[in-house]
Amino acid sequence: MIEVETELISKKELLQVMNISYGQLYRWKRKKLIPEDWFIKKSVSTGQETFFPRELVLERIRKIIELKDQVSLDELSDIFSPKEEEVNIEAERLFEKNVVTRQGMELFTNMVEGAVDLSDLKQVLMVKILDDQVVTGHITFEEGKLIWRFLEAHYHRLNKEESCVLLIRHLGLPFVVGALKREMVIVDEGDRLVLEIEIMKEIGKIKLALLG
Amino acid sequence: MARKLTIYGEGSVSGGEVSKVRVFGDGMIQSDIVTHSIKVFGTATFEGNVEADEIKVYGEVTFNGKVKAGLIKIYGTAVFKQEVISKNMAVHGMTQLSKSSVIEMMKNMGQITMMESLQCQKFKNYGTVTGNGNLTVGDLLSRGNLEIEGEIEGEALVFKGGKLQANTLNGEKIFIKFTTGSQCQSIGAAQLVIKRARFKCHPQAFMMVDEIEGDQLDLSYTQAKVVRGDVVRVGTYSKVELVEYQTKLLKHSSANVLNCRES
Prior knowledge:
Largest sheet of chain A: 3 strands, antiparallel
Oligomer: heterodimer
Shape of chain A: globular
Order of helices and strands of chain A: EHHEEHHHHHHEEEH
Strand content of chain B: over 45%
């Protein structure tokens, strides 16, 4: 269930705003480009109507429309839908496509003491996190290590739409929490939420960059 | 793999890896089994998980574990208590699928009861399917009865004859030609055609739907509360309370549209 407070958009309005047809919307749903959880059925005066979480679905559909002429629907489905798969990613390609930098890769090699295996998406994700956060000085190397330990142990459970990893500092002490749904986690105001990584989104970005 | 397992009369054995399983009497296989072929002419109960290239049931069988098979043919009665994964399944007798199953090609000439979801690439139904799960298919052709409480979702859904009853129908192309009164809560399709068969048809048979949504809609003998579409044709003897259309609305002289608005 999606939180009650999220702003909703009706199917009718969605089709009008995005100027897409009913068939397209459901074709995308069947291809798993739009998760089933987002189709929320509600009773209205004329019977039942379907609603969507407004921000999420608008963003997703904009992206689909933008990409659909360049890549096939099946490839798109790979980007958006969470599933385990074997990917063959070479380090050079990652640098070439500017997914990660050499500095990030070096940091990661240090962290895992040489055991880099880039066919594992979670490792690529971790390199990207190091790149985005540690290299820029947003979080420390030690905190990066914490995130990696967490990802290594729990990635398979977090490989879902909407799940995220949070890095929180309590009295300066960092710790990592995984959330299957972001709304379900309440962080005390005294604690600082340093970092929030939406796993599927990040993975999607990586796949997208590699495709382009 | 050389071992052959045959039960005449009454017997219970443990499973393992065998080349063939034949049950003529009343048999019970007590543990997991991996085999090339299973044929049951009598009554059999498989307590463990089953992995086989082909399973043929002429008698009665109960699988209490998971089943993974290439070809499954049921001429008698089969009850699957756990999930089933199969390439090809043909049902001429009675089958119960208790858990969500994945079957690539399904052909039903008998009766299937599904308690949870069923996923198929191709589904041909000439018999009866009842149950309360969701049916997800690539191509569906139904000439028999399909009465489920869940959703039917697929690329191309074709219903010809027989009775159709489902909560939701959703697909790219849906074609319905019914002979008896059919009911759905909502139908959604890019292209939808609803017709009544010319012959062998009950004169008072209508398709009753609460809500129809889609792009190209062609309805006849349909009673609906709301119809929303791009190009909507309300054909012979249809009755719609509200039509919301974008490009075009066509009405047959015998059609009854209470309200319509362009959106």
